[in-house]
Amino acid sequence: MAVRIDEMDRKILSQLQQDASQSLDDIAGAVGSSKTPVWNRIRKMREAGIIGAQTVKLDAEALGFEACFFVLIRTSEHEADWQARFLRALRERPEVQEAHRLAGDIDYILKVRVENARAYDRFYQALIGEVRVHTVTALLSMEEIKSTTALPLGV
């Protein structure tokens, strides 16, 4: 069942995307409403699955995770058993921040955050020890120019 959201919902979502730790009073003030209607809208959007878990954004570099690699994987394996082992291996590794299955020449792309190149090599060795891949290309991000989880809500 698709949930319809209106302009007020979009404003509330925009505020939450900026800072989900804001008080209801602050959100209500920013969107031009009162606290109770805002709370009811947030509750309905949570129940509908529009709003998921709330987390905290950590500064990776401040915590010593200075290397971000984008890992391109090609495989000649496409059987269900291989895919299940591969997906389990990715889910069990906290270094993998994102994993996508792609259309085109590359089968998968991973975003891997580690302390340094040596830590990436440990990750790589462990991964290829669990599942066979055809080729792996690791690209080191030299600078993060933009990173957001915010959706373009048009507010």
Automatic annotation (TrEMBL):
Keyword terms of this UniProt record: DNA-binding, Transcription, Transcription regulation
Pfam families assigned to the protein according to its UniProt record, in alphabetical order: AsnC_trans_reg, HTH_AsnC-type
Organism: Sulfitobacter albidus
GO MF entries: sequence-specific DNA binding
Name assigned to this protein: Lrp/AsnC family transcriptional regulator
GO cellular component: cytosol
GO biological processes: regulation of DNA-templated transcription; response to amino acid
Entries under SMART domains matching the protein: HTH_ASNC (SM00344)
The keyword Transcription appears for this protein: yes
HTH asnC-type domain location: 5-66
